[in-house]
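Why does residue order matter? Because the sequence determines the fold. Keep that principle in mind as you read this record.
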Amino acid sequence: MSTALIWTILTPIHELLVMYAVYTVLRRPREPRAMLAWILALIFLPVLGLVLYVLIGEPRLHRTRRRRRRRRIRFIQTMRRQAELRAGRSGRASHSENRAIDSFMKLVGRIGGLPPTAGNDVVVHHDSEKMFLELSLAIQSARSHVHMEYYIYQPDETGRAIRDLLVAKAREGVKCRLLLDFVGSWKLFPRFLRPLREAGVEVVFFMPVLPWRGRWRVNFRNHRKIVVIDGKIGFTGSQNIGDEYAGRHHVEWRDTHVRVTGPAVHHLQEIFIEDWYFASRRQIDQDLSAYFPLPSAEGGQLVQVVPSGPDRESNVLHLLLLGAIGAARESLSIATPYFVPDQAMIMSLQSAAYRGVRVRLLIPSQNDHKIVLWAGRTYYNEIIQSGIEVYEYSQAMLHSKVIVVDDVLALVGSANFDERSLRLNFEVSMVLYGPELAGSLYQDFETLLQEAKRISVRHHDGPIENIKLGLARLISPLL
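Structure:
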């Protein structure tokens, strides 16, 4: 069969597939820029555009939503009711005397956040080495179980150290479960995982890409970072497992991670169990006393945990961020490694600045994803002209994801300020209410600004720079 004949056969097939893909884009409304970008890619990038759409084009995970809803009915809701009955009202949060906090708390609850809990002790970590030491000590103290959920787990010195701790605890009879994202932890080969599995540690990958089993999509990733030890100690934030995150890399990374004890740990546990069910299809032990021990008031912090992802009916993270921006009255401080917002987010930030809120945005100038940095820079002029202050931090790879609203609340978690986190990734955010924690994070933000460069309006860039930034922005809806 000649090459010309092959192309004659394949061309109409390709065109039919492209037409069907365009139809699916139009049938499932999303951000107009993303829809237009996909249609242009499908039309003007023969074959490649179609392949990309198959891999990363679907905006919602409908199958996941149905399965997760069934699991809630079968187990999660029963677990929560029984845990609350055992705990009484010791961990429930009453209405705050601060109207801004009370209003935001209601918003979070209505969009899909878990109930707020009082009586938590929260320690915020910015020092990578201290954070990993704290994590290691917590794992060593485990008596019942260790649950770990990460996007990236590197097979390096730090990864081996955590692996060996899990192996040791599993051999002591502690139940250890490790849930990793298939794409984020792609460097983990069977040889690295073998000691874990031989010791009895359960290792599961989230949504593996296995074309021979019909699993093509790579866009729905589990970006959460959660550790729960004995149902009593929890960790979450922006820090993955690897040398770069532990301060052992030639480029310093700076994360914001929290250690929490108290009733909020139950909500991190609930998220882990739900994700574990979906990824493994394995039943977890039904002994609630082991996984949800009676919570006690460990401190005075008010905390609310917010899971988000493409399986939710509403765009939880998008509404959460818009709500935080709208709640600001005096200041809004945002630290994010990746800034690729949609138009609604841009207008919300501009609106806050126009009504007199001091809005400051801190982004790293050295970034592990250059195209995302370039795309973010294309937004600088329009937001700076509305009064928003933009700073670039060059002392480290700033990987923290933090938003501080006035001195009353703060958001810390795994979510970036980009369209991937807003619409495609499974994320977890922790809302910290009250001036103690919000004030501490605000002071840390101020310290970072002292070493950052304030960006002014860019009037003239070279043609190459303009093309580079323009192309980055053009494909930003696909990132």
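The chain has three domains: 3-56, 62-98+116-303, 316-478.
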